[in-house]
Amino acid sequence: MTLFDPPGPVPGVCDDPELMLVHQHLIRVDPDGDRFARVLRDTIDQLLNGEATGRYDWATLFKTEKTHAGTLVEINLQREFEFHDGVDMDYRIEDIDVDCKYSQTFGSWMIPPEAEGHLCLLVWADDYKSLWSAGLMRIKREWLNGGTNRDMKFTVKAEHRSKITWLWKDAALPENILLHLPPSTRARILIPGKNKGQARVRELFRAVHGKRIGRGVVRTAAQQLDYMARVREGSKGRARPALRPEGIIVLGDYQSHQAVARDLGGPVPEEGEFVAHRVVRARPEYESRPQAEIDGEFWVVAKPGDAVETAPQLPEAQESRARSVQ
Questions:
Q1: Could you give phi then psi for residue 86, rounded to 5 degrees?
Q2: What DSSP designation does 31 have?
Q3: 3-state DSSP assignment of residue 62
Q4: By mean pLDDT, which of 25-29, 219-223, 275-279, 289-293 is the weakest?
């Protein structure tokens, strides 16, 4: 995941030793925010439940599902980081009670009255902007808007959001590929009808090249329990063997595939991700392009206008990593 430069020290943090301890703990267990971002991506995908519903857009969630998002974020973060249960708040981190609040709308965290005086972990993620943030704040009543909702919960006044000590601010959320595709491309992928999962997965990798494609996207396209099998080698209808004659390779999170992705100069698939490319043999006129050795030959990412060549067989998970050409 690519982040902006981490925020520097925030004035006044050293005046709150507990906040500083929790801040240091969270940065220590997730220095780049990669784990945090993955939890948020997986939680949004869990809510969309594309495998069963075919949904890819937050706007299509029911109101009750959106309301449940905060609880799922809280639960999934606790599972990922193994936070202890709090005494009065959600978590116990460094023996300090910390509440967790999530909002899809920046600044709309709903703070309960009992959180006053406690630390809050404030989390925001926006699937449309592909951004997320997380910060810590000591809740003080004078920094909150009055609780006018039925549950008497408060929000942080805009002028006091500067009191939030950011762990990660406007960091990159793994992209919801289907959401951000042009409508015409998305329509070609999401073919309506039952028993179309394999065709949808093939079209996904035929249409989307040079991007990390998460398991949630594949699950939504397949809408089948065995969605990963729609990608793997096997019967000729599966994505990898079916797209090979078109010159397309589908790299997964195997170490050997990651090496090929790196050598080709594109994004590297992380856990549960794929990256597709159309490739051609590395002719002398392509010497300026990054090259990777695959199945005994050197290949480069094809450009529009390059003739289609049958793609090579990718290495298996247990095979040695591909060699790069400097």
A1: -75, 165
A2: T
A3: coil
A4: 219-223
Cα distances from 31 to residues 38, 216, 258, 267, in angstroms, run 13, 25, 22, 20
Q: Answer for the pair 99, 89: CB distance below 8 angstroms, yes or no.
A: yes
DSSP one-letter string for 182-243: -HHHHHHHS--STT-HHHHHHHHHHH--SS-EEHHHHHHHH-STTGGGGTSSSSTTSHHHHH
CA–CA gap between residue 168 and residue 189 (Å, rounded): 34
How far is it, in rounded angstroms, from Cα 270 to Cα 249?
16
Determine contact, residues 246/308, Cβ cutoff 8 Å: yes
- Top pLDDT among 32 and 325 is at 32
For residue 179, the one-letter residue type is: L
Question: How far apart are alpha carbons 326 and 311 in whole angstroms?
Answer: 22
- Number of helices and strands (H, E) in the chain? 10, 11
Distance CA 200, CA 220 (A): 9
Tally Cβ neighbours within 10 Å of residue 290. 17
CA gap 326, 134 in Å, rounded: 39
Q: Is 192 exposed, middle or buried (0-12, 13-18, 19+ CB in 10 A)?
A: exposed
Specify the amino acid at residue 217: V
**Residue count of the chain:** 326
Longest distance between any two alpha carbons in the chain, whole Å: 70
Percent of the chain clearing pLDDT 90 (strictly above)? 74
What whole-number distance in Å separates Cα of residue 286 and Cα of residue 301? 10
Distances, alpha carbon 77 to alpha carbons 68, 71, 112, 117, in Å: 14, 10, 20, 22
> In the beta sheet, which residues pair with residue 96?
93
Asked if residues 84 and 92 have their Cβ atoms less than 8 Å apart, the reply is: yes
pTM equals 0.85
Instruction: For residues 282 and 278, give the distance between their C-alpha atoms in angstroms, rounded to a whole number.
Output: 13
Q: Which residue type is seen at 21? A: L
